[in-house]
Specification:
4-stranded mixed β-sheet; elongated; 3-stranded mixed β-sheet; Arc Repressor Mutant, subunit A
Length: about 240
């Protein structure tokens, strides 16, 4: 296989390895390692990390293909779904795999990996971006992940929910909260949705315990105590 033909084939995938080149060329491992080394030296390909390469420059195109299985969530997903105009400072990738490197640099982008449990690994879809398959969190799951992993303040999340009520599926949000099963996160969203006029107590009431949790984990703990949700409202403490 000629170099140009090989590059055209490699451009069809977000991320490839030495094995990918070996499968395409049918050559030995030693030969393919040499081919990859030469393409890297000629700056025809970019190294993401050890034995992982790409022809693409956009970090969003490759982020969910570096570790399998995984999907893009939090700020990058919220931005993709137009729930925020704030540009993400990092691309957060949720995975069930353990990684030695939890963060990598790609160009000017920072890709951060967040490990989760298999039971919470859901709520994403396969989308087409730049002609490639990318795994992206659905809007509702991106909001929950942002709170669950403390990647956005709950004040910021509340503002996004309030401004985008028409485009957010409230029932899906509630069902995702139940499936995630984190009590503090469920109570925060339940309290928020109820104040926005959306019935949430029937589904999320089982998460209300005997101890209080602050509404926004990014702010000081003082504020008004809400016994209905056992939440300390430190965002609007009147």
């Amino acid at each position: 296989m000629k170099k140009l033909e090989l590059l055209r084939e490699l451009a069809k995938v977000p991320v490839f390895s030495n094995k990918t080149v070996r499968d395409l060329t049918g050559k030995s491992g030693q030969y393919t390692r040499l081919v990859v080394h030469r393409m890297k030296r000629e700056k025809l390909i970019r190294e993401i990390e050890r034995n992982k390469y790409t022809l693409h420059e956009d970090p969003l195109l490759i982020a969910s293909s570096i570790t399998w299985p995984s999907y893009i969530s939090c700020w990058a997903a919220l931005s993709h779904h137009h729930l925020t105009e704030q540009l993400p400072t990092a691309i957060h990738v949720v995975t069930t795999r353990s990684r030695k490197r939890r963060e990598i640099e790609f160009g000017r982008a920072r890709i951060v990996f967040i490990k989760t449990t298999p039971s919470r690994f859901f709520g994403f879809e396969k989308i087409q971006m730049g002609g490639l398959e990318v795994f992206m969190a659905e809007p509702e799951k991106a909001l929950i992940d942002s709170a669950l992993f403390h990647r956005a303040s709950f004040s910021e999340i509340s503002e996004m929910v309030e401004k985008n009520l028409e485009s957010i599926d409230a029932e899906k949000l509630l069902d995702c909260l139940i499936r995630v099963g984190d009590g503090a996160t469920a109570r925060r969203f339940g309290y928020l949705l109820e104040h926005l006029g959306i019935e949430s107590r029937e589904k999320l009431g089982k998460f209300v315990g005997k101890s209080y949790t602050v509404l926004d984990y990014a702010l000081p703990a003082g504020g008004r105590r809400d016994e209905r949700w056992m939440v300390i409202d430190n965002v609007d403490p009147r």
